[in-house]
Amino acid sequence: MTRATMCTVGRSEKPRTCHTVEITDRAVTKFSHIEFYDAQLVLARLEEAGRALLALPPSGYSTGLRMNVATLVRFMIEAGGGEPEHPRIHPPVPSAAGITRMDEALGWIPLIPRDRSVLRRIVGARALVNPLTDRHLYPWRRLGAMLGADHKAVQRWHAQGVDIIVSALNAAA
Predict the structure, then answer these.
(1) pTM of the shown model
(2) pLDDT tens, 11-35?
(3) Is residue 162 included in any domain, yes or no?
(4) Does residue 70 fall inside a structural domain?
(5) Integer Cα distance of 32 and 34 in angstroms
(6) What HEC string does 157-168 produce?
(7) What's the structural domain count of the chain?
(8) Staple partner for 125: which of 15, 57, 79, 138, CB 3.0–4.6 Å?
(9) Domain containing 132: what range?
(10) First-to-last CA distance in the chain?
(11) Is residue 74 part of a domain?
(12) How far apart are CA 42 and CA 168, in angstroms?
């Protein structure tokens, strides 16, 4: 569960109001009415997008599978019915609204300038969250090892990337 702060700019006599929203990993939330973005909200949306991306099923039926169906069926029958002892658990397929929000949130990563490609990579990698376990696919230390930097530096760079996205979204609003 993630907490995100959403602020709306009041119209004429109404002052700016802020409220905290708890976002569960599979919650259906709408953020199209938001007029002010903060880092927590952007992080929550990016992680929601990463969960949705990883929950999408792999590509459809391939021709390679069609060519070997008879061989696969024969193998499954010989293997005892083809039921594995521990069936693999798949995350639920995201809804159409979830996929739309995913597309919107992943479209924010290019708001980081091209010359800051390391920040783009870090923000994109940290957005990938396993939809079943809610664990990041790339922990801070693994990102640090991949980039040849300290994990604390990677955390600072991630915060800089998110701040760039927040300022670009607020400037556009």
Answers:
(1) 0.68
(2) 444 444 444 444 443 333 334 556 7
(3) yes
(4) no
(5) 6
(6) HHHHHHHHHHHH
(7) 1
(8) 138
(9) 37-56+93-172
(10) 27
(11) no
(12) 11
